[in-house]
Design brief:
mainly alpha; 8 helices
Amino acid sequence: MERELLLECQRSDRNAQRKVYEKMAGRLYSVCRRYLKNDEDIEEVLADTFYKIFTKIGQLQNPDTFEAWARKITVNECLQKLRSNKALFISLEENHIDTPESSTESLSLEQDILNLLNFLPEGCRAIFNLFAIEGYPHKEIATMLSISEGTSKSQLNFARKKLQELLVNQNI
């Protein structure tokens, strides 16, 4: 992100904010999509994310870290939304998981896997994203979600198992 553009955002320049939004909205939407299924929730989180970015941008010490900082805000907003839904974690005995219908479209393996994340329960999906995609350790995930490290590990293992089953069922 251009340093001058970020400085203009710090001065609450609406044109600069619009440019930052246009550059970042697609990337941050993709982050939201990995955590949330509902389009209304995604739009709400994205709006909250940009509000927080533009109101807290003065706290950004190094403009070179803007994208990582914005991504972290997005992840935190997604987790906050999941916590407010109160359906974050599933019982490991729960066996019912929606499965995708076969698709004739040929997508990349990465996109196929990301699409399959939508068929995981919210808690498993959040932990899988935090661990496997964002790179957070279990200890930090446990702190972020107010759970034990063991719960984080078991939810990750459950998510991996279900993803493997979904991949086999889809012949991916």
